[in-house]
Structure formats: structure tokens, C-alpha cells
Amino acid sequence: MDKNRSVVKIAAYKGERKKEMKKIGFIGVGIMGKSMVRNLMKAGYELHIYARTKAKVEDVIGEGAIFHETISECVKDCEAVITIVGFPQDVEEVYFDSGNILDSAKKGAYLIDMTTTSPQIAEKLYEEGTKRGFHVLDAPVTGGDTGAREGTLSILVGGDKSDYTNCHELFEAMGTNINYEGSAGCGQHCKLANQIMIAGALSPVFAPLGFGDWRISTALVTGFMAKESVVSTLTVLFGTTEALLGTITAAGAAALLVFCLLYTPCVAAVASIKRELGGRWAAGVVVSQCVIAWLAAFVVHGFALLFGM
Fold this sequence. Notes:
Blueprint: H1 3-13, E1 23-27, H2 31-42, E2 46-50, H3 58-62, E3 66-68, H4 71-75, E4 80-83, H5 88-96, H6 101-104, E5 110-113, H7 119-131, E6 135-138, E7 141-142, H8 144-150, E8 153-159, H9 161-172, E9 175-182, H10 186-206, H11 214-226, H12 230-238, H13 241-245, H14 250-277, H15 282-306
Helix pairs in contact: 2-8, 10-11, 10-15, 11-12, 14-15
């Protein structure tokens, strides 16, 4: 191994970074965010975090993250600010509300929204942020909590190419498949296409788990893709938990269990294909996801028919 290269690598893990990329503000320290914060700290960055409930982030605070009571305090001295929050309205709140990111971040900072949101919001954020002297990127991710934990996320980046290049080292701390998709909003367009593809593949799997009610299969697909609580989604659709439970039969619950048992090996198979194909994995994964989904659908449908669903 090149001696100089190894010295640089060791120095990076001791926190020796380019001056302009030392302090990182991070908003959205949830299941995904916590792992991303940990990986950024491992790579030598100084992490400043904000969360609505401090008790929920005590673990990463104990590991070295610096907690702030307000978004304004969190971002004001940071060279880059990363957000990965729940919903599009949360993105607008943390950026556009008075006293939040756009009002408080220092001029010239990189603002990177990694939330899965809409291309329209990404473009709006880019336009307003650019006017105020910021470098704005939309960079949604795929890979779930496992990818976040292992630092193997796929990151789909939209914005100015020069900003993408300057932030590439930052992205490398969180992911392994990092792609520049084009101008502002293109990262979100790519993520949208990814979600449509997955939804199409999953629909035949979840269809027999609908127990005769479209709301259940719809909530299962939506909840699965969004990594949200499926029960919460179902409760909203049905109105009450009691109404939901009244529709679920023992056979239906058993069929759902079969799918859950199939899920882990299916995900492992897709991950293996991605590793083997490296940067040329897209077509292979599309095919493999569809094949796996249809195999799972075949098993679950057969199970449903066997028990008279």
C-alpha cells in the first residue's frame, strides 16, 4: 500500500479534514439519521445535532455528537448542514420557518436534504437557498436502516455538479453507491422512479394480504416502502385499531408471517447482486427485485388459497 495514502487515511479518521468541511449540522436523528451521524463521526467530522426530544439521542451524544436546543444554534457555525426528516412538510419547516436553516446557516454553507420528498420542494429549496448564497443539493438515499448502519447507502444527488464534487467525500462517509443525477430536483426524480419500481414489484406480494380490503394491501406497500409504522398507516385508513383488527383473520396473519420470513433472504439476495455488479447494478437489481417479488407472491398466494382467504 502507498505509504502517503495510508497516512492520509489514518489522518482522516483522527478528524483532520479540509477546513471548510469540519463542522456538520445534522437535523433528523432518527433510525436512519443516527447511523449516518455515527458514520460521519467515524470519518472524523464534528457533528452538531438537533432533535425535538433530547432523550432520544442521548446515545449519539454520549458518542461525541454535540446537541443543540434549537435548529438555529445547531447550524449557525457549520460548513455543511444535512437534513433527513420525516415528510415534505417537515423539510419546509426546518428550512423555511422563521429562525430555522435558511435564516441561520452561515453564508456559503452546503445545505444537503437527504429526505425523500418531491422534486418541486427540492427545486424550491435550491432556488431560495442559491439566492441567499448557499450551495444546495437534494440527495435522497436508498438502502434502509441497514445501509445507513453499515455505511452502504445509495445516494442520488441533484444540484450543481461542482457542489456534488465538493461534497463527495462527505457522501462517502455514509454510502458506497454515490451518483450525480443532474440539476436540482433530479435526485428526487430518481428516487421517485426507484419507489415506483419497488411498488410495482411489491404489489403482487401484498395483494393476497389485503384480506378483501384494499386499505390493508395499500398500507402494507406504502408502509413498507416509507419505513413507517404499518399499523399507524392502517389505523388512519380504518379510523380505529378495533376496526382494523376486526378484518384480520388467522389465515391472513399466517400469510403475512410467511412473507416476513421470506423478506430477509430476499433483501440479502438483492444486496449480494448489488455487490457483485458494483456500479453497473441497476438493471440487475430491477430484474432480481421483480423475480424475488414474484416468487414471494407465488408462495404467499398459494398459502392464502390453501387456507381459504
